[in-house]
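Task: encode each sequence below as structure tokens.

Item 1
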Amino acid sequence: MLQLLLIALFPPAALLIFIYFVDKYQHEPWIEILKAVAAGVISAFIALAAVLGTKILFPPSVLGAIGDSFINAAIPEELAKLLMLWLVLMSNRHFDEYFDGIVYAVCVGLGFAGLENILYLFGEEDFVSVGIARGVLSVPAHFLFAVAMGYYYSLVHFKHDLTKQQKYFYALCITVVPILLHGFFDSFLMVMSWSSEQMNFALAGACVIAFFLLCIYMVVFAFKKCKKLLQTDKRMFEMLAQHQFNEYWTVPVQAPLSPQSSQQWNPSPQSPQSPQSPQSYPPQDESPIKQ
């Protein structure tokens, strides 16, 4: 039992520590991290209940495998995770940076993946092999789906210069992009398994190639989105530091006592005694993130 739990929980725990340290400008409190992980565990129960209550049986075929991947896996699972992410962030005062959306979404996703791993490994005779396979494929996949969800969630929450159409588009992406990534990820695996059973090795080989191309795309996508939001947070912290510096060095300047002293008083623009206008943070007419 202990070995099974270690195999099931080590991959999500390792990725959880990884995303915590990637958030290098201001770490989230561990209590909030653990709340998000617990919310992810709850989302797994919600998705499981939804699938058991409304499960649609698809015939064993290519279309059946794709339908099963989307209807019975990707859609209920990603919607359940999004619901719990929304509840976690709804009144979270620590959700104050762009990258935080990715951090909390990943925590929810890894909580889901951890419980899903345990449920999959229970009852498996060769749980070591299954656990290693899921630790290499399924758990990192949930991590990557969550990066997409958290990225668009942060854009909708923080980016106030969006047009109405852009805001609706990004809000749609919060749900649609993770569902598409998840659905195609599962579809390629299920079609690969079915075609191998049918001795259709050409189709199985095509699915293998498509699956690895999808994995490469998801990794590159996640890397770029994480880098973009980290750079945005860096600019925001630099603006805040400059604002605090300006406030510190802005001191009241006493009026000269006489016309003669008035002529002598000519502080240099670089002098810390000359009044400065502190910059607003963030600027009202400029968004820190570029589209």
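Item 2
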Amino acid sequence: MKKNSETITDTDETLMARLSQGDADALESLAKRHSRSLYSLALRITADRGDAEEVLQDTFFQLWRKCSQFDSTRGSLIGWLLTIVRRRAISRVRRRSDRFRCTPLRDDVDILPERNGPTLLEHLITRELVSAAFVGLSTDQQDAITLAYFDGWTNEEIAVRTNTSLGTIKTRLRSGLKKMETALSNPVPPVSCKQVQEPATLENILITEQLLSRGFRQRRSHQEEESLHILAEAATPDQLIDAFLRMPLDLCRAGTAGLSLLETTPKREQVFRWTHLAGKLAKYTGGTTPRNFSPCGVTLDCNSPQLFAYPGRYFHYFNDVEVPIVEGLVIPFHVGETEGTIWIVSHEEGLGFDREDVRIMTSLTEFAGCALHLLKLLTAKEQGRNDHPSGAA
């Protein structure tokens, strides 16, 4: 007798076990169970129904082909699927836009520009805040708001579709929006010492939304000018990188600043190499972290600055360093075919980063791009000399 693939008692774990054996009915059941949440996330990120549908299809295709990659000990299935959707949706948005392309510096451009109006980061943070507030609603409230504001249905249409009274639909919308408004008016509090000792998910340590709620420090132009003079004295690209990494130690009160470059190992594994470090973790220069399990990887996937609190709670390898990492601010950059991040971390309780630090670090990515470009040119030139030594026939 054929097994009923939509039995109400089937858990995600049961369906995944069947899926691993090639059961297509299990995939269909998982799609029916999770499609609404996954599609809603894809639509919020891409703002395009066609793109959202393609992201959803790609996600379930990946689930079918690579279901063995899911590890239930690392988290729930829906969390894993939401991560896949988020990354694919962000990648699709990145392909649609060229706004993150690195452009060369000009002499007439202010190196560290003043803040004028909402930045791209603030728009991204606002979207993340709204998403976080939405997740805190009940399923009924989420469904009502999704149908009304993402699908464009009227209250009457929602009532008919869900077989619910019109008054109930209005109440769900009103109470859901009120709850979101309250959540947005009261940002998430800082991580407590007790929480530091508890196991965490990526969502627990990723606190980028707090950048919008923290106070904005005044710009210290004089100190920035002094730092820029030091940069101007750098004689080689390596010295330039080391010089700009020392800047945030003073300007951002960071304990360590670093440059991480994405590379592929001989075993075909992608890792981030800590090529340059300044500060308390300088002894770890040359170390690596995995591309698919690291703050740098998360930041490249999001393609925007990200803030992490006690990252060792989730990325446990950070607990092996001698100095505790309290907060980490990571900035992505892309220079030609080179991808990587620059980042700063604090090692002291109560010392957190804010939007002024984001402004400084984002500007420093231009120095990173310039220095890396020069370093590549010099390396290629030196290689050419070795390949064609003077006096060769």
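Check on item 2: The longest strand covers residues 270-279. Strands lie at 256-264, 270-279, 288-290, 306-309, 327-335, 338-346.
End of task.
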